[in-house]
Amino acid sequence: MSDEKEKDKEKQPDGENSGTADLIKELGMLASGSNFKSPFQYLSIIGCVEGHTVLTQENKTTKYEHLIPELIAVEENPEIQGLLLILNTVGGDVEAGLALAELVAGISKPTVSLVIGGGHSIGIPLAVSADYSFVAKSATMTLHPIRTSGTLITAEPTFAYMKKTQERVVDFIVEHSKASRQVIEEKMNCTSNMANDVGTLLFGPEAVEIGLVDQVGTLQQALSKLRELQEQQNRCGKE
């Protein structure tokens, strides 16, 4: 029996490596106790933002309840001096996405976002929530009206609520980007850009052109900007 236990221990990774593997698998982040040291926290939002409803296993999801404590830690942990947010998302739960976006926007330390692949739907408020935003040249971002699923009561209050929800999203984007409300609403309600759908598909340079994102860029440029913002904040703190 003792020999079997020893063999099982040999098969299992040590505690630190196991914890690191779990964090990479579940959250796409490196453990603070790993050999890699950085003053910044790196968080990724991949696939669909999962909110109050658990999605099926066929969906690649980012659970918002996993990211909330990580974002709070960025603000609270004195060893963390900034946040790099990586986005490749199709969108997802509106309230969950807005909750995460509000937390990012409320962080007092420097924050930078980078959209790679896609930053669609509720991914747009997440992208613009950072102090400075980048989008890859090949990435796309989709602006479209709010959608709903499940049972829908076709009563006037239902449509009024959906309109107010869309206004919440538009208000956040306008407040945290250089895009005007008029342009955002025009792109959202466009009927000629997407086949069998309403909205507008923007490529990286187009998103920058309308003021939605600050700059077309790469990972290296995003990290450089984050270091620049960190140095500016440190200088201001010393003055």
Distance between the termini: 66 Å
Low-pLDDT parts are: none
Strand residue percentage:
15-25%
Estimated radius of gyration? 20 Å
Could you give the order of strands across the largest sheet? 2-1-3-4-5-8
Structural class: alpha/beta
Number of strands: 8
Globally, the shape reads: globular
Question: Could you give the order of the helices and strands?
Answer: HHEEHEHEHEEHHEHEH
Q: Can you count the helices?
A: 9
Arithmetic mean pLDDT: 86
Helical fraction: 40-55%
- Largest sheet, described in full? 6 strands, parallel
Describe the structure.
This protein is α/β, with parallel strands linked by helices and 239 residues long. Helix content is 46%, strand content 20%. The chain is built from 9 helices and 8 strands. Strand 3, helix 4 and strand 4 form a beta-alpha-beta unit. The longest helix has 21 residues.
What is the gist of this entry?
The protein has 239 residues and is an alpha/beta fold. It has helices at residues 2-11, 15-27, 64-76, 94-105, 123-128, 156-176, 181-188, 204-209, 219-238; strands spanning 40-50, 61-63, 82-92, 111-119, 132-135, 140-143, 200-203, 215-216. The chain has a six-stranded parallel β-sheet with strand order 2-1-3-4-5-8, sandwiched between helices. Strands 6-7 form a two-stranded antiparallel sheet.
